[in-house]
Amino acid sequence: MKQRLSIQAYTDGILSGNRMVLSRAITLIESNLAEDKILSQELLESILPYSGKSIRLGITGVPGVGKSTFIESFGKYLTSQQKKIAVLAIDPSSQMTKGSILGDKTRMEELSREPLAYIRPSPTGNSLGGVSHKTRESILLCEAAGFETIIIETVGVGQSETYVHGMVDFFLLLMLAGAGDELQGIKKGIMEMADLIAINKADSGNETQANLAKIEYENALHLFPSNGSGWYPKVVTCSATEKRGIAEIWELVEKHREILTKSGKFAENRQQQNLTWMHDFIKQNLEENFYRNHNVSTKTKEVQKAVSEGKKPPIKAALELLDIFYKSS
Ligand code: GDP
């Protein structure tokens, strides 16, 4: 087993902003060892009173839209204002390739050298759900370590956005002009989750197109029903490489927080997210235990065959397997 610290040592290190201890604590919560899981939960309980004070910002967009360039510019803008920023990631590709969107050392090179910034590559895991729990817990640790803005990056192509949306206060979608939603692979559901759409690469003669895209997306957003938070999603243009539009985006993030804090929606949203998180974990845990159950797994193949050959109704088959599970657990 790896060398672990005591709960007190982890807690003291994190609260004093010691990054090495923070990294070791994140490694601990990412571990799948049973004894580490117990220690992690004790640690999380110990730091919980010191968490929650950041702005949690989700950023998504298809590969190549400029996410890491944007986060680098945005992060450096914040650190120039003496704000502490942490960058975490949920990376669906890492499930398959064991790669990671933040794993490539050349990404966000300048930001990673900033003393006020902390960048952590995406954890690997068997399921996106499992990875997402670890990222949520990492957010709490980073907050206890004093990071005021936490960015969660993900690739805008599927399920991971829903997880990220469920753990952040503000959801930013980066888009390109002239590529069309279809081409960009962005689903309507992802646009609907956005608090802000930023059309990136509005530079090098691309400004007019970017402004046209802005109007187009503004019109599209009008078609979505209001979520009742008092905030109406906005569209802006920006250039991550030329650092244009970055300060304005931060202003909108702050404005959003101000409006939602006044209406009580900010706290309500976080409460709701915590409840959803708890229930998600229960569901995931039950499902894992179910399929890991020896009696269930020996019977599953046979039952699946019967269902696919139309010899057994699916629900009857499911009830049979559930019955085996309950009797043997
Ligand atoms: P990611 O895959 O979404 O993280 O995208 P990257 O940040 O790696 O950017 C992909 C490419 O687009 C790189 O070559 C960047 O230099 C370029 N890029 C990113 N932002 C901008 C921008 O604002 N303007 C221009 N012209 N190029 C950009």
Characterization of the model:
This protein is α/β, with parallel strands linked by helices. It folds into 3 domains: 1-50, Single alpha-helices involved in coiled-coils or other helix-helix interfaces; 52-262, 3-Layer(aba) Sandwich (Rossmann fold), CATH 3.40.50.300; 278-328, no CATH class. It has helices spanning 7-15, 19-30, 34-47, 67-80, 92-97, 109-112, 128-144, 159-165, 180-184, 188-193, 207-222, 246-263, 265-292, 294-308, 314-328; strands at residues 55-61, 85-90, 117-119, 149-155, 170-176, 196-200, 234-237. Strands 3-2-4-1-5-6-7 form a 7-stranded parallel sheet, sandwiched between helices. Helix 1 crosses helix 3 (34-47), helix 2 (19-30) runs antiparallel to helix 7 (128-144) and helix 14 (294-308) runs antiparallel to helix 15. It is globular.
Q: Which value, in Å, is the CA radius of gyration?
A: 22 Å
Query: Could you say what the CATH architecture of the largest domain is?
Result: 3-Layer(aba) Sandwich
Number of strand segments: 7
Uncertain segments:
none
CATH superfamily of the largest domain: P-loop containing nucleotide triphosphate hydrolases
Structural class: alpha/beta
Using the coordinates above, name the CATH class of the largest domain: Alpha Beta
Order of helices and strands: HHHEHEHHEHEHEHHEHEHHHH
> How are strands sequenced across the largest beta sheet?
3-2-4-1-5-6-7
The overall pLDDT, averaged over residues, is 90
Report how far the terminal alpha carbons are from each other: 29 Å
